[in-house]
Amino acid sequence: MRPKRPRAVLFDLFITLVPGGTRDERDTVSRVMAEVLDVAPEPLAALVRDTFDDRTRGRLGDLPESVRWLAGSLGATPSVAALATTVERRTEMTRSLHQRTWAVPALEALGAGATGMDGVEVAGEAQPAFWP
Fold this sequence. Notes:
132 residues; mainly alpha; 6 helices; 52% helix
C-alpha cells in the first residue's frame, strides 16, 4: 500500500521562511509611522514590539485596525489619510521582507495548486495585503 501524499503543509512565515528584519529596521518604520500618526516615536516603537504576539494573532484586528489601536493607546485619533499612509509604510516594509526570500513564490505556487496541495491562509495583521 502506497502512502498518501499530503494535501496541505503548514508553514510559519515570519522569522522562519521570511526574515523578520532587524529590530533597527522595524523600529525605523515604527518611528516613521509615529510621525504620520502624530505620536511620540519611541513609545510607538516599544508598543509595536510589545504587541507583536497580539498583532500577529489578529487580536488587534487587521492592519488598519491595529494601527488605529496603537495610535489610540498613545492618545491619538488618526485621520483616514494618516491611517492609510501609515498602513502603506508598514506594508512597504513587509513587502521588502518578502522580497528577501525564496519562500513567497514557493508558497504562492502551493496555494495556486501547482503541487496538488491545498493552500492554508497565513495568520497575521498584514497578510491580507499579500494573500487576499
